[in-house]
């Protein structure tokens, strides 16, 4: 491949390739003011051409060509997840040329993944979960969609595939006794941990949403419009909710508001005490040195607390589930609960908390019985 400058902001790349014994030439013009940018653009274009004209292009080669587009505008954690799926695809499917893939082959691959034993940290034998398989298939399907759009392949083999069923379990919540122990023991915790747990249990906030709250005066309400996460490489990033419903106003109980004020005062005292050793993070929930608390440390704190008060292991998200249970038991309707939880729609809420709304079926039966009685009464009155 060679590149020539046509004018001030234009470059042309020319590539020659032998296809089925015949020499074929490809050209493309790029608009840019810098030659190094033109070279980069030409190299990406060359990759697509090389893959397109190759009859034995491997899965990994195809994925490499489209990958930058597949992960474009995705959050760092999403990119990490996609990359794991990509590695899984290459590891289990790369022995077949991309053009030879068919729905039958992909179905066989999906079935094989469902039954494949994989290594685990505990050394116990386990298989890929339905969720993992679905995510891996989604990434493969997305890559092929881009390849088809770029005319690298005539069609995508990712269609009419039967995926494993993910049997959702009911959201686990704290029992009344465990909830009582949990609440009564909160005063024994450091203020950062206490407020952290209270915002999940009494305000339904997710871990990332809590970690994204700034260290600023907070009234009776707080706008939840961002969340803080950390990549596996230890880099923090902030992102907005995926849907508009994720942005919401959260009402803060007075006792939680008071604890937040006490926490901010405590931070000011620690800042004076530690002086230059205090990092002074801009976020409300901090580590002992004032730095932003690491997301994984949240679960560690909760595990230690559960063990301390003598209750079964509880995940941080189960505090949010417990909030939903308390609110639903108070008579709150499904739509309102969905808004409080920040779900994209009420079907999301219902799929997670179906067991909390089982009484709706009973209400429906009572209404049906009422109509039965009404019709019977009307029939008798006409006899």
Describe this entry's structure for a reader.
This protein is an alpha+beta fold. It has four domains: 1-53; 57-167, Orthogonal Bundle (DNA polymerase, domain 1); 176-352, hpI Integrase, Chain A; 358-383. Helix content is 51%, strand content 12%. The chain has helices spanning 35-53, 59-70, 76-93, 103-115, 130-149, 176-184, 191-201, 207-211, 254-274, 295-309, 316-329, 334-341, 346-352, 359-381, and strands at 2-7, 10-19, 22-31, 117-118, 126-127, 221-224, 227-230, 236-239, 248-251. The strands form four sheets. A three-stranded antiparallel beta sheet has the order 1-2-3, covered by helices on one side. α2 crosses α5 and α12 (334-341) crosses α13 (346-352). The model has no long low-confidence stretch (mean pLDDT 82).
Write a brief structural summary.
The protein is α+β, with helices and mostly antiparallel strands.
Looking at the structure, the CATH topology of the largest domain is hpI Integrase, Chain A
Number of helices: 14
Q: What fraction strand? A: 5-15%
- Biggest sheet strand order reads 1-2-3
For the biggest sheet, the summary is: 3 strands, antiparallel
Separation, N- and C-terminal Cα atoms: 96 Å
Mean pLDDT: 82
Report the radius of gyration as a whole number of Å.
Answer: 28 Å
- Tell the overall outline: globular
Tell me the total number of β-strands.
Answer: 9
How does CATH name the architecture of the largest domain?
Orthogonal Bundle
CATH class call of the largest domain: Mainly Alpha
- CATH H-level superfamily of the largest domain: Intergrase catalytic core
Low-confidence stretches: none
Question: What is the helical fraction, as a range of percent?
Answer: 40-55%
Structural class: alpha+beta
Question: What string, H for helix and E for strand, traces the elements in order?
Answer: EEEHHHHEEHHHHEEEEHHHHHH
Number of domains as seen in the coordinates: 4
């Amino acid at each position: 491949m060679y590149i020539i400058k046509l004018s001030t902001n234009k470059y042309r790349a020319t590539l020659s390739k032998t296809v089925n014994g015949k020499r074929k030439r490809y050209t493309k013009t790029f608009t840019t003011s810098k030659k190094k940018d033109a070279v980069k653009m030409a190299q990406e274009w060359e990759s697509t051409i090389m893959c397109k004209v190759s009859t034995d292009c491997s899965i990994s080669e195809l994925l490499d060509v489209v990958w930058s587009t597949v992960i474009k505008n995705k959050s760092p954690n999403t990119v990490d997840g996609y990359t794991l799926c990509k590695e899984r695809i290459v590891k289990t499917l790369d022995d077949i040329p991309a053009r030879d893939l068919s729905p039958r082959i992909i179905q066989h691959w999906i079935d094989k993944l469902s039954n494949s034993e994989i290594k685990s940290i505990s050394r116990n034998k386990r298989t890929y979960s339905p969720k993992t398989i679905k995510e891996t298939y989604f990434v493969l399907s997305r890559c092929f969609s881009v390849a088809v759009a770029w005319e690298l392949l005539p069609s995508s083999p990712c269609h009419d595939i039967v995926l494993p069923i993910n049997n959702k379990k009911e959201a686990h919540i704290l029992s009344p006794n465990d909830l009582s122990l949990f609440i009564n023991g909160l005063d024994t915790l450091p203020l950062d941990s206490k407020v952290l747990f209270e915002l999940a249990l009494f305000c339904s906030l997710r871990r990332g949403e809590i970690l994204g709250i700034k260290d600023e005066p907070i009234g009776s309400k707080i706008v939840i419009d961002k969340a803080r996460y950390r990549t596996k490489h230890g880099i923090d990033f902030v992102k907005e909710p995926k849907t508009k419903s994720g942005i919401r106003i959260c009402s803060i109980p007075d006792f939680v508001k008071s604890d937040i004020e006490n926490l901010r005062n405590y931070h000011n005292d620690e800042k004076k005490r530690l002086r230059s050793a205090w990092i002074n993070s801009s976020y409300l929930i901090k580590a002992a040195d004032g730095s932003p608390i690491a997301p994984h440390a949240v679960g560690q704190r909760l595990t230690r607390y559960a063990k301390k008060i003598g209750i079964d292991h509880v995940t941080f998200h189960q505090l949010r589930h417990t909030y939903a249970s308390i609110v639903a038991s108070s008579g709150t309707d499904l739509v309102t609960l969905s808004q409080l939880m920040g779900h994209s729609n009420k079907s999301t809420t219902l799929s997670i908390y179906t067991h909390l709304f089982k009484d709706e079926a009973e209400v429906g039966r009572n209404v049906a019985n009422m109509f039965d009685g009404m019709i019977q009464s009307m029939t008798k009155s006409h006899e």
